Amino acid sequence: MILRPAFVSLRWKILVPLAFLVIVINVLLYGYINQQLLHQHEATRSESHAANLKALNGSLTTSYHKLLEVAQTITALTQTSGSDQNQYVQIVFDYDFAQLEAQGVLDSAVLFSPKGELIMTWGVVHSSFDTIVEKAIAQEYPVRDLICREQCSHYIAIPLLSNGSVSGVLVVGRVIQGTVLDFKQLTGVDIGIAKKIKESEPAVTNWPLLFTQMTQKNQNIQLLNLLSQTEPKFVLDTLYSVRAFGHSYDVFFTVPSSIQSDETVWVLIADKTQNVDRLQKVQFKYKAGMIVASTILILIIGMLVECVVKRLRFILKQAPSRSLIHPQNVLAKSAFSDEIDKIRQLCMVRNEERVSLSNQELQVIPPSKASVSAQVYEKDTVANLMGNANSIVLTQCLNGRVLTMNELAKQLFGELKDRPEHIFSDHFLVGSHNRTALDGINKLYIGRENLVCFEARCTDIKGETCHLYWIHTNMESNVDHPVILSIGIDITSNKKAEERLAWLAFHDPVTEVANKHLFLQLLPEMMASNLENGSSLAVMCCEVKKSTDSHLLMDPADGNVTLFSVVSERVSSCLRGDDLVARFSDDLFMIVLNNIKTKGNAGSVAEKLITAFEEPFFINGCYFKVSINIGISTFPNQSSDVAGLVQSAEMSMYLSKEEGINNFEYSVEEASLAQH
């Protein structure tokens, strides 16, 4: 007994895998986009914290400089007083300390003897200054420090020098509370300063830190306590994220580079709720978009599969049902069958009916007259091609060996027949520029293509370059191996014409130098290169004029052509290899002097050109006098754009014409600089 497989419609066999594939692709795509969004978010966080650190260092440096300025002013006054410096410092602070303290310039001042003994104090002093005083006496140079007790203060110790020796040390200090508040107002970031402790109870659980100063201290201490529960040990210069009080915060522990102390830790707390919410909104939009796109694609695939299934069911309805229920035609290899399996059963039935026919009834149909005529026509066509004098025609084997050639191929490339060492690709497809053509002919050799066409470049027996358009196809042959017919059409003249047109687009046909289009294309590149290298360039506008007698002696038909070609050669001979000369119009040339050191270099070249044009031009047995006027503009001093440079050089040229022929002028802004 043969069991019939269960029927499962083709729509489910196709729709389910395709729907799964669509979902997987969309999930992977969403994962990639989400990863890019996270990278962008992290980059923004890093840039923001870098800016905050820069602002913090700037604020601390400014605070130090204010203290240093006050202390240096007082010490400068003591040096000019001529009396005892220590006594003079006491007098100054006795009278002015209250005013300086009221202005917020400093909070405390201490005066020490050259041996480090305390002489006098002003204000409230909570620290010992033995270390910085000893350094100031030893180095004879101001020493700064940050000391934290109940509050953190900046201190600067300045040695008082008299007759080349230290007569005392002045220490001035200022509580940095104002600096902290200024930083908060500037960046909107909360800041705290903690002192490293060992014995007393810390303000933050698990961290040996005592915060002496902090903006919004109560809230931020709670925030740090939450962070310490997940991070038992904090790491300097590491960015942490904390979610608390319905907001997202970035916490960063650091020691500013402007602080010369390792006893304190600075913490920056920034509210990044808006950035995080914006990221979550973008992620939600992409997620919703992916879901909608997946749903639409699955619906479209379902509609297409339904159309295919309906077509297959229509085919099954046209077939006789008796063919499908024969026990021998049941496919039991699969547990499930579908519309395709039923069509395969139908095909098997039809094949059995064909095989059951008697072999005697099968008749061998002889070749018709039409096929014989087609073979004769193909043979005549090949014979005509072999005699064609306008194209290269040859035949070759599948291994590339050339069998036959027409007369034109023999004239251009010599006789290659019966030379096994001369393969078609070795002679006609040599060089990396023919790699695409070589790939195409190899596909024909291995049978992947029946017809290939490509352009190739080769060299004939005279050493001249030929451009050929090849057509290769398989052809029937009486020999025991396949033959390939190859036809090469000579397109050398077309290629040369294209190259000439491309050259004329950027060159002057008379003088063979660059034209205006190429000049305006190369000048911005040369300006960028000189700006990167820190050098300069000069643009020279040159107008050449023939004398009145020259017009009378020259043939208008070709005299100008000959003269200007010689003029361009004389101009080029006065320039360097990396300079640029271009012809803008009949008698106007533009020159770019690349990579010059001073403005005087351009003037030297202009004088060289004027000297060269003082010598007459000898053309067609006659001498001609030609004058030149030059205007000079420089980059980047004169102008920073192409139009400005060209316009300044042209205006300077017109100014030189007012002084007479064979003169040059700098632009108005550069004239005074060039004279030096």
UniProtKB/TrEMBL annotation:
CDD domains: GGDEF (cd01949)
PROSITE patterns: GGDEF (PS50887)
Pfam family, one: GGDEF
Species in which this protein is naturally found: Neptunomonas japonica JAMM 1380
SMART domains: GGDEF
Transmembrane segments: 12-33, 288-309
InterPro entries named among the record's database cross-references: dCache_3, DGC-Regulatory_Protein, GGDEF_dom, Nucleotide_cyclase, PAS-like_dom_sf, Rev_trsase/Diguanyl_cyclase
Highest rank taxon of the organism: Bacteria
Keywords: Membrane, Transmembrane, Transmembrane helix
Coiled coil regions, renumbered to chain: none
Residues annotated as domain GGDEF: 547-669
UniProt protein name: Signal transduction protein
